[in-house]
Amino acid sequence: MTGETNPLGSIHVAPRAIATIAYHAARESYGVVGLAHKNLMNGLAQALVKDPTHGVEVHYDGAQINIDVYVIIEYGTRITSVASSVSNTVRYHVEKALGLPVNEVNVHVRGLRVSELD
Amino acid sequence: MKPQRVKTIRQLPIDGQALKRLIEAGLTWLRTNQQTVNSLNVFPVPDGDTGTNMVLTMQAAMDEISNSHETNFGKMAHSVAHGALMGARGNSGVILSQLWRGFARAVDHQEILDSALLAHGFALARDTAYKGVVRPVEGTILTVSKDIAAAAEKAEKYAIDPFDVLDEVVKEADLSVQRTPDLLAVLKEAGVVDAGGKGLFYILDGMLRFANGLPLDTALTTVQPLAAMTFENSLEAIEPGQDFEVVVDFQPANSLDLESFYSQLQEMGTSIQVGEGEGIYRMHIHVPTEKLYEPINYTRSLGTITKVSIENLIAQMEALGASKGSGGLTLAPVEPGQIAVVAVSPGSGISRVFASLGVAAIVEGGQTMNPSTQEIINAFENLPTDQVIILPNNKNIILAAQAAAGLTVKKVAVVPSRTIPQGLAAMMRLAPDNEFDEVVQEMTEALDSVESGEITTATRSVEIDGVAVQEGQTIALHNGQLVLAANSVEEACLGLLEKAHADHFELVTMFYGTDMPKTEVNRIADIVRDAYPEQEVEIQEGGQPHYQFIIAIE
Asked: Hey, which residues 346-405 in chain B have their CB within 8 Å of chain A?
């Protein structure tokens, strides 16, 4: 739980909620054609329910928020640029929504999609 | 002369070499308007670098083809796409490279470009760009690519040559960019159009301007959103005939004919900029003294003036020159691909020393005035390179510098210099053309090669690390640690040098601050020289506030 205290009480934000923000930010990043699972077992389990946090892991150790994003990128784009855009966009959107700093956003490129046009 | 060039490019078949010239024109025009594009950047992350990213991407494409003698249009287009891919920077750069990739595919191996092929190229460019994202966001460069593909398809049917198609494409690009705030709420909130879309417009418009023989080096009839208008550049260099800056806000009675508006203003002065927002226009111009009231009278004839502001630039320049001491700094020019260093400096003299060692940008700041993360970013964001090293030169600024490094797409490393002497020692190791990580390591290692001393006045009574200090005493800090308190500056200097074992070193450089009279500096220098006859003692103007001396011992 990510918490913040104000005079009226505490606010707790579940990692899952943060993951949802990160998920949407990643999906709107240019060059990302999909999010992937960290491993196949998770993938099978989550494929059954439409999961809004698919391919995103949020870790909160009591002090820092770390986010891992697993993405599939369009073949033919510059992967490093796309990945750093994803990282920037995810960080920006999470920080904007949460008002708390994000320690790190790790982008894991799990695969490339080749969409041949001709 | 210019009408003849129109004939050449428009009469000759458009082959690989013609494409090269068009790419160059697109790049030049984009670069001319880079700041405008940067100022629009609010989506997806408002970091103000879209223009820079697009320029770097197009520059990479240009570099790829600049020495090519290829005449086949299709092959040249593939080289452009390859260069853009390799240099793709940021979101907009990646999309731009995808557009080129699609375009190159459409014109595969074709010797010459014709209208139908150009329209096909825009269509495939759009298709390729849209394939690169799960959920395309409309109101961005993607939307503009879609709209211009449609315009090209329509225009192709009756076009005589590809430039007729380009003509329609540029018109549509302009309109499409203006529609982006209606599609994307963030843009509307910020009162801007999409930056990436605008950048694409400039590239295409640059090509068309080149074909029509129009100049590409000065941003002319561009209307910016009001929020994006900044006149900071007015303080850089004032040429003869730029005595006054006049800014007029007005509401035109009828719709404003920009072309004639600009040509009228050009009769009066230079540095013309026009901004627009919610029916109000803002006009900015530099005029000579004798024409001071002309732009005001002229705009009054067009509508209602709401606000006028006039500034005397000559007087401003003089004031600025006085505050900065003997003239401006000459900073090291940076080439794309080189490593640029940004240094934080507390005073003009130290800035000059940093500049002489090859620093590319200076951020003013020090003990009592820490620069913000944004100020640090601003210092390097527009340098033409993407490899940047920051020297914070103060332990309180290291964090801001690290934050700045995390907020940019550029490759930025902070060499954590805690004092000015450390920063100077690190600069000695700078090799701008070497491998980035190596240089960072070298410079970081250099930090410990120097002993730093600072002499200042205690602002309160305190006891730290066993040193008792009375308010008003002179204190000495060795490598940032308080080591002694003394009743005079020379006593503090000598005490510090002793603590730092200056007799084991070769060179002592003393930077004196703003509140040290020159005679006093010379007197103390003589005392230090007498005490350390074996060491070389150098005296330099530091210009820093609050510190009588900053001392480097190496």
From this structure: none
The partner residues of A12 in beta bridges, in order of sequence, read A3
SS3 B409: coil
Please return the burial class of A93, using the count of CB atoms within 10 Å of its CB with bins 0-12, 13-18 and 19+: buried
- Domains and their CATH numbers in chain B: 2-218 (1.25.40.340), 226-321 (3.30.70.260), 325-449 (3.40.50.510), 451-553 (3.30.1180)
pLDDT the model gives residue B70? 92
- Tell me the backbone φ, ψ of residue A29, rounded to 5 degrees: -75, 135
Nearest CB to A34; choose among B91, B128, B134: B134
Question: b/e string for B195-214 if b means 16 or more Cβ within 10 A?
Answer: bbbbbbbbbbbbbbbbbbbb
The structure's pTM equals: 0.52
Q: What proportion of chain B, given as a percentage, has pLDDT over 70?
A: 90
Nearest 5°: the CA angle B518, B522, B526 is 170
Closest CA to A64 of A114, A2, A14: A2
Chain B residues in contact with A30 (beta carbon < 8 A): 91, 94-95, 132-133
Q: Please report where in the chains the tokens 């014109």 appear, as a residue.
A: B107
Residue B23 CA to residue B30 CA, distance in Å, equals 10
What's the token pair of residue B322?
A: 């006085």
Query: What residues contact residue A6 under an 8 Å CB cut-off, 6+ apart?
Result: none
| Cα separation, B108 vs B527, whole angstroms | 78
The shortest C-alpha distance from B400 to chain A (Å) reads 14
Tell the CATH superfamily of the A2-113 domain. Cation efflux protein, cytoplasmic domain (3.30.70.1350)
The answer to whether the beta carbons of residues B377 and B408 sit under 8 Å apart is yes
Q: In this model, does residue B220 exceed pLDDT 90?
A: no
Q: How far apart are the first and last CA of chain A?
A: 49
- The pLDDT value recorded for residue B317 is 61
- Mean pLDDT along residues A29-37: 87
Tens of pLDDT, residues A51-102: 677 889 999 887 789 999 999 999 889 999 999 999 999 999 998 888 888 9
Task: Assess whether pLDDT exceeds 50 at residue B236.
Answer: no
* CA distance linking residue B85 with residue B105, whole number of Å: 14
Phi and psi angles of residue A8, each rounded to the nearest 5 degrees, phi first: -90, -10
B303 touches A: beta carbon within 8 Å: no
Q: How far apart are CA B146 and CA B176, in angstroms?
A: 9
Three-state SS for B112-135 is: CECHHHHHHHHHHHHHHHHHCCCC
Number of Cβ pairs closer than 8 Å across A and B? 78
CB contact under 8 A, B97 and A89: no
- Angle among Cα B110, B115, B117 to the nearest 5 degrees reads 35
Residue with the larger pLDDT of the pair B69 and B322: B69
B58 close to B26: Cβ distance less than 8 angstroms: yes
Q: How confident is the model at residue A47 (pLDDT cuts 50, 70, 90)?
A: low
Say which residue the tokens 């920077």 belong to: B89
Least Cα separation, residue A92 to chain B (angstroms): 6
Q: Tens of pLDDT along B484-498?
A: 888 888 888 888 888
Q: Would an 8 Å CB–CB cutoff place B132 in contact with chain A?
A: yes
Select from A74, A88, A89 the Cβ nearest to the Cβ of B132. A74
DSSP state of A22: H
